Amino acid sequence: MSKMRAVQVASPKGPLELVERDIPVPAKGQVLIKVQACGVCHSDMFTKEGLFPFIQYPRVPGHEVVGVIDAVGEDVKNWKVGQRVGVGWHGGNCGYCDNCRRGYFFACQNIMAVTGITYDGGYADYMIAPVEVLALVPDGLQAVEAAPLMCAGVTTFNALRNSGAQGGDLVAVLGLGGLGHLAVQFAAKMGFKTVSIARGKDKGELAKKLGAWQFIDSQTADPAAELAKLGGAKVIVSTVTVADAVSAAMGGLGVNGTMLLLGVPQSLTIDPSLLVSGSRSVKGWYSGVSIDSQDTLNFSLLSGVRSMNESYPLEKAAEAYDHMMSGKARFRVVITTGN
What we know:
Blueprint: E1 3-9, E2 16-22, E3 30-40, H1 45-49, E4 65-72, E5 84-87, H2 98-101, E6 126-130, E7 135-136, H3 143-146, H4 152-161, E8 170-174, H5 180-189, E9 193-198, H6 204-209, E10 214-217, H7 223-229, E11 233-238, H8 243-249, E12 253-261, H9 272-278, E13 281-284, H10 290-303, E14 309-313, H11 317-325, E15 332-336
Parallel strand pairs: 8-9, 8-11, 9-10, 11-12, 12-13, 14-15
Antiparallel strand pairs: 1-2, 3-4, 3-6, 3-15, 4-5, 5-7
Helix pairs in contact: 4-5, 4-10
């Protein structure tokens, strides 16, 4: 077999179209992955809408990829055909710039590579990936379970484990959607007193089922005041993009507390006196690199954290994307290839 199916965007703002392509051949330092599942992430809109100026079209989106190595290129060491692997947002790094030498591979100064943006991603039967972006997928996770963990999962898990919070600390998660439902699970499994903040009392039952210690309905209660009653949060993980919701929760931080932004509002208003008076801070968090993804997968298998997914076959990728963008997905959307 020399041909494969792929779902591509031919031009900025163009439709997602199913096409037939030649199966690519891995070059030096690359592997060919037979894709089994690929998550549909909101960030795929960067490719769909042409929001990155350096995207070359046609381009295949997808950066929550899980599959099996089907072939290896020259000089590939420690990776072999048949291994289960995942690929996330981080698309590669040089390994020798100052940031890479300090371990900040995500901030590489020489390679600005993003899976599904600077090279073809996982909306296809096969894809090429450089070896430095590969994460081993444990056998206990099915491909559909693992795929969303390659972006949504590693973003929330990695943020929490680097937040400075310790077991028993009060950690709040703002939002209970695609990111939030994972963040609540990770926070609870890490031993934090986890508080879920979301709009609507109907979400309380789900929050408790996912492991939340307390639930705050932001439609009927002041999140900042409720968190203050509980002693103040060491960390608030914000998974939302609504600036007013973030600002409304800021007052719930305890002394030396941190508002950790995963969602990206267009702008944000913060009371400086709130920061100064309690030595509070606002910090952003990126996703993670391959070893962070691998840690996320292993922790999820061990602890029972699972994404709640809706699956679509590859040929319905356009429908899957539209469903994700509608905000009605509960909670992640995953494309499967049948491989």
